[in-house]
Amino acid sequence: MGEFALGQPVSRFEDPRLLRGGGRYVDDMVLPRMVFGHVLRSPHAHARIAAIDVARAKAAPGVLAVLTGADWAASGWGDLPVPNGMRRGDGSPSSKPRYPALVVDRVRWVGDYVAFVVAATAHQAADAAELIQVEYEPLPAVVSTADAAMPDMARVWDDCPDNVCFVHREGDRAAAEAGFARADHIVRRRFVINRVTAATMEPRGAIGDYNRAEDRWTIYTTLQRTHAYRAELSQIMKVAESRVRVVAGDIGGSFGMKSAIYNDVALVLLASKLVGRPVKWTSTRSEAFLGDAQARDNVTEAELALDRDSHFLALRVRTTAAVGAYPQAASNAFIANLGTLAGVYRTPAVYAEVTAVYTNTNPMRPYRGNGRPEAAYVIERIVDEAAGELGIDRVELRRRNTIPPEAMPFKSGLTFTYDCGEFEKNLDLALGLADAGGFERRRAEARGRGRLRGIGLSNTIERAAAGGFEAAEIRFDRTGTVTLLTGSITQGQGHETVYKQLLCDRLGIHPDQVHYVQGDTDKVAIGEGTGGSRSAALGGSAVHLATEKIVTKAKAIAAQILKTDPDEVEFEDGHFTAPRSNRALTIGEIATESLNPQNLPDGMEIGLIASGVFSCKEQNFPNGCHICELEIDPETGAVEILRYSVVDDVGTVMNPLLLEGQICGGIAQGVGQVLLEDIRFDPASGQLLTGSFMDYAMPRAGDLSAIACESNPVPTETNPLGVKGAGEAGNVGALPAVANALVDALSPLGIRHIEMPATPERIWRAIRQAQGTKH
User: Fold this and answer.
1) What's the rounded Cα separation, in Å, for the pair 178 and 186?
2) According to the model, what pLDDT value does residue 582 have?
3) What is the DSSP string of 242-269?
4) Do 385 and 302 form a contact (C-beta atoms < 8 A)?
5) Do strands 452-461 and 417-418 pair parallel, antiparallel, or not at all (unpaired)?
6) Which pLDDT belongs to residue 72?
7) Alpha-carbon distance 122 to 302, whole Å?
8) Contact of 696 with 413, CB cutoff 8 Å
9) Is the CB of residue 610 less than 8 Å from the CB of residue 549?
10) Taking the CA of residue 215 as centre, how many other CA atoms within 13 Å lie in the half-sphere pointing to its CB?
């Protein structure tokens, strides 16, 4: 099956079904007797609930139930999960408030959950929600991450007087201080990484279905992990896991945002039990801006120490990061990726301190990269700052400090130990791909047209497949066709295609012979799900291990049939042969014979079935070099990306077509944040100012150029396939590359930094200020 083998650019098998309207998204699902839920959300960023009257809503047409915080408290169910194990600056446990599905006496962000209405139709539920009378007593709100811990700011939680959720310190502080003490040059810069939202193609949704006869719940929802989700749900509901079924169908994007247990998921389950019917809730796009967890939003003070030869001695970083109003589960996960601050450089010591603060805003969650793009942005921007201050070429400064391949494995200055990589080769290949040597000629030509042209690069590294396990199961049936079940859950990455390629490559079968199953805890035995660029390395390795078991078992059965020793049986392209036999058996024939006990060796279980579990003992480190070339119109501040070149190392390339799609998609999200996307709140009222796509600017095809992608694969030995994660790589490299290109274009005007998003207005104002022009 060479055309479908591993390494071939196979188009996604999932796409024809989805493009023809065959998707099975949550909103496509219709269950018998299903009714609909609607969330009444807070219009205030911070307020006491003095009184709530639901009588008119309960009497409205079609209404079956109206739930408030009092009803949630009376249910006996537990709170939503929050992170554990964090500490405050004095070593005391982190501030960890309760997280009910519906508030009782106080709302803490515009969009907080006040009541849940269930009715026969979605419109009836929404109309009834407008009849609920809530008496609010507005309170002062804080929405600024930078100012949240100031003494005179409003307090989100009364028992957290400084709004500090936790303080995390990482690295050798003493070594970093020593590096700064002997430095010949110290470069400082403040970086603000703005707040964004995932804005997934499919909004969130959930259907809760309680089966009274079986005393069992089923939840159909949008997520990235079913088994861990079930475990958390069972704790909230206080029932055994076996009484909860979690089903994820098709999922239109997630990027980390959908993997939490949101309030609405718990509410549809509770409501289903109370009304005795399945309850469906689907977010609108406007509601998504109010209810979805958001991302990034941190302020960093960074300092880089260099010696007289411009070698890096130490990096010191202090960050204030937003938690939002509630510490949603995994909202602290970004600190696990602080090691990205060390970059691809030999910096001996890196010290990072993160202060996480509450604000009266949406809760925060991992979002594509989950701390990696932010850290990469800080290190790659400050390297460019150092080059500018010291008058050294940006490429040369990187070369002087880049880790050479022969130094591997290399213990970085912060946490990570890199297993392999050719970082300078990535740089050289990318420079060639971008025709960096001809840039000055292109800049001069642009200057003649009145344009400011710039080129920016980033040579970044991140960790992937960090810990945990993944599982897969292969089941042959009597006809020789296969059911493949995996714990990974795709949200558009193409898992089905790559895993089928693995089976074609290892077992010699056609992809049409494979039925792929994911995302159902009643069908898939175990699994951890998708996130952190882990599916290729962990899920792929689990599939690989399962294929090895299938081949081993099939050889033993073939030997029994061919009357030879299993060691003499050869397997190639789906056929089993033996030197002393003139007969060949297909793997399909073996599958059929495996169900006949007479053909099995003594002690062998019936059926050609095998499972594989791959446990990750060592993380891997995808890396790559991005180069962005752009122009700015100084009269309008408009930016046009003209060229984008990337050379990536994600180890073994399983499917170059899907890899390029992942890289380009990540780049688009990085470009979106640097140039366009921005969640903003009114400082006085806490109201969301960017609550629709009229205000929140999403990247479009016209905002990007063609993207030239090449690979420099250095296979890792941390898994049997040699693959490194690719899902976040594009976003990690894009943020600093585009930002550095912007600064390079503006540098002739003396502008050394511009914050995100670099909108035309912000650029225009920076240019006018630099020119001393009134505006």
Assistant:
1) 13
2) 86
3) GGEEEE-------TTGGGS--HHHHHHH
4) no
5) unpaired
6) 97
7) 50
8) no
9) yes
10) 6
- Give the model's pLDDT for residue 775: 47
Q: How far is residue 271's CA from residue 113's CA, in Å, rounded to a whole number?
A: 15
Element (H, E) at 440: helix 439-448
Q: Consecutive 10-residue runs of the chain (775 residues): their mean pLDDT?
A: 88 94 95 98 98 98 98 97 90 92 98 98 98 98 97 94 96 98 98 98 98 97 96 97 97 95 98 98 97 97 98 98 94 92 98 98 96 97 98 98 98 97 98 98 98 98 92 95 96 95 95 96 96 94 98 95 93 92 92 93 95 94 98 98 98 97 97 98 97 96 97 97 95 98 98 97 97 68
Are the C-beta atoms of 508 and 575 separated by less than 8 Å? yes
221 vs 259: CA distance, rounded Å: 10
Cβ atoms within 10 Å, residue 684: 10
3-state DSSP assignment of residue 139: coil
Show Cβ contacts of residue 671 under 8 Å, excluding neighbours closer than 6 positions: 641, 699, 703, 704, 734, 738
Copy the structure tokens of residue 670. Answer: 């990085």
Please give the full DSSP string across 636-705, using - where no structure is assigned: T--EEEEEEEEEEE-BS-S-HHHHHHHHHHHHHHHHHHHHT----B-TTT--BS--STTTS----GGGS-
Amino acid (one-letter) located at 226: T
Tokens 């809503």 sit at which residue? 57
Indicate the SS3 state at residue 399.
helix
What is the rounded distance in angstroms from the CA atom of residue 436 to the CA atom of residue 625? 13
CA atoms of 506 and 514, how far apart (whole Å)? 13
Instruction: Using DSSP, state whether 52 is helix, strand or coil.
Output: strand
In the chain, the amino acid numbered 439 is F
Helix (H, G, I), strand (E, B) or coil at 385: helix
Residue-by-residue DSSP string for 753-775: --PSS--HHHHHHHHHHHHT---
Q: Which H or E run contains 312?
A: strand 312-324
The two tokens of residue 231 are 């475990």
d(CA 215, CA 239): 10
Residues contacting 589, CB < 8 A, separation 6+: 480
DSSP conformation class of 512 = G
Tokens of 661: 């799609």
Q: Count of CB atoms within 10 A of residue 695's CB?
A: 13
- Sheet of 469-476: strand order equals 514-518, 482-486, 469-476, 609-615
**H-state helical runs in 518-586:** 540-562
- For residues 685 and 677, give the distance between their C-alpha atoms in angstroms, rounded to a whole number: 21
Helices (H), 137-292: 173-181, 227-237, 263-275, 285-291
SS3 376: helix
List, in order, residues 6 or more apart from 89 with CB less than 8 Å away: 164, 167, 355
Longest dimension (CA), the chain: 92
